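For the sake of transparency, this paper describes our internal protein records without simplification. The remainder of this section carries one protein's record, kept here as part of the documentation:
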Amino acid sequence: MGMRGVSPIVAFVILVVLIFSIATFVVPWALNLARETAIQTQNRTEGMLECQDAAYSFDPEWGVHGIKWDFGVNDTLEAKIVNSGLVSLWGFSFEIEIEQDGEISIKHFGSSGFTQDRPLKPGESGIIRANLTEDVNGTLKSVKVLNSRCPQVWISQSI
């Protein structure tokens, strides 16, 4: 007696069952991935559109170009900013450029002040204070103020 193979009908049925079994796992995963990607893209786009109307500046009437600092005993750094845009802002931080012994260094510090629950609203001004986490020595060359609401919008002032 010769060996007999699987009939074409049985092979077709097995193939269809195998395809549906794989599709049962792959299709929900692919749909979930597409849904998550669409939501992330929408959120990023909405944020970018809202941030087009974000703007703020240093208050030139306060301190030196809107900035006060003392790197002596107290180590303080403050800036008075004015929200001149149409978007509430919060989560401000400082990036400062210091010259010491002929070398320039850049330091980053968070700030106290405006939070998502208590933002700097359009038309308002306020003072932010750097949370200086180290002893700062040298000559202040420039101050950049960033925010977490619209990271692509920031201000900078040379001293």
User: Anything to note?
Assistant: The longest strand covers residues 103-112. The two ends are 99 Å apart (CA to CA).
